[in-house]
Specification:
The protein is mainly α. It contains five helices and no strands. The radius of gyration is 38 Å and the shape is rod-shaped. The chain starts with a helix and ends with a helix. The model has no long low-confidence stretch (mean pLDDT about 75).
Length: about 70
């Protein structure tokens, strides 16, 4: 009977240990969260407003002060 009790207790310890290992493995995976360590950029902030950058005031650049040249 003592051998049966010993085997039963060993089996019980093994089952508990498997549960503990499984819990630690799940906790470790949950702690990582699957997040990458790469730097992410905000795509909305990185976009450039090309309409505003392409506008050039040609009227102001084309005017020449002829009165100053004639003097």
């Amino acid at each position: 009977m003592a051998i049966f009790a010993f085997v039963f207790l060993q089996n019980l310890k093994n089952q508990k240990m498997k549960k503990v290992i499984a819990i630690f493995a799940i906790a470790a995976l949950a702690a990582c969260g699957g997040a990458s360590t790469e730097a992410t950029t905000d795509s909305a902030a990185a976009t450039v407003d090309t309409a505003a950058a392409a506008t050039v005031d040609t009227a102001a650049a084309a005017t020449v002060d002829t009165a100053a040249v004639a003097k």
